[in-house]
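New to this. Please check this fold:
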Amino acid sequence: MHAMSPTEIFLLAILIIFTLPWLVWRVGRTDYWAPLVVVQIIGGILLGPGVVGAIFPDYYAFVFAPATMGALNGIAWWSVMLFVWVAGLELDIGEAWRRRGETGITAGLALGVPLLAGSAAALLMLRYPGWRGPLGAEWQVVLGIGMACAVTALPILVLFMEKLDILRAPFGQRVLRYASLDDIAIWGVLALILLDWERVGRQVGFLIGFAVATWAIRRLLRALGENDRWYVGLIWLALCGFAADWAGLHFMVGAFLAGAVLDAHWFGEARMDRFRQTILLAVMPVYFLSTGLKTQWGVGGASVFAVAALLLAASVGGKLAGIHLAGRILKWPKGDARAIGWLLQTKALIMIIFVNILLDKQIITHETFTALLLMAVASTMMTIPVVAPMLKRDASLRRRGS
């Protein structure tokens, strides 16, 4: 019998990654309540070692061997960097600065209130055994769970806003401003939780170097044609991703910053749209599924689902309360706070990465990870079914940029 080569096994994994979620999404017509990206994430979790891998260990060991996972991870890292870079390009930093008061208040409350609610839920969890990891101090567990409840996943938010046709609208850019600040904040909190003081010095060095390099790259790109701007932009992306990861800020933060400091009109709107669509079609499915494939979870009975429900209430309720308070302070039109609050519920990928690190560092247990994972998927699946009817009822909502 012919033994499969590493290349054949890799292509078999790619075949599974692209085929199974698409069939479930298309045949099951799940698009309204579970877009393809959500199906891909859930598919990765189910195909991973905790579910199908536990039932069919030989299948998992053969198809998703370490060599295959190494190749998939490389594609996944680069694909999400490209995607987040484009998201950064599309953020109007000038507008964010002009509206810094509104952006700061909204982003602060959107992060702070669910963080407090999630931290309160964590304190309740810690009254019972089984939720704190062997190396986790109580404050680390509380802050980690609180931040997991507060975070918004920028890549998923961009996908959803594009699906709702509001990404380029004033309302979409407004939401992107709020989410981007919170998305960056999670990595600072992670650095605090991990207490890597050596990397705090690196982070200061990165920020200083980044400021100088930004001045240089902007001058260079102004002098180049569009084709050269794209190529040099990708070099800049790789450099920022490497430097940010070296500093402990995570390569996705570097990717976002690499795009955020550049002007979108340098790259051409139509060409940027085509580029984003190509990334989504050709490589992002690998990221969505490989993220799920890396998760490991041991279900600890009904208590895990009860805790997941508690965390979901803290996350959703806290986010809506924070945004509602911002709307009251800033005197937003009726309906703005509710729509923004639900759009910022997208968690999935960023939160999964965040809690995977907490699990690897043994700050939380597998049961805590499972509850957080269930919460993230549920909150993400709520977004489109709630927001789509609101946009349909109020056609002027998408035009409201402040």
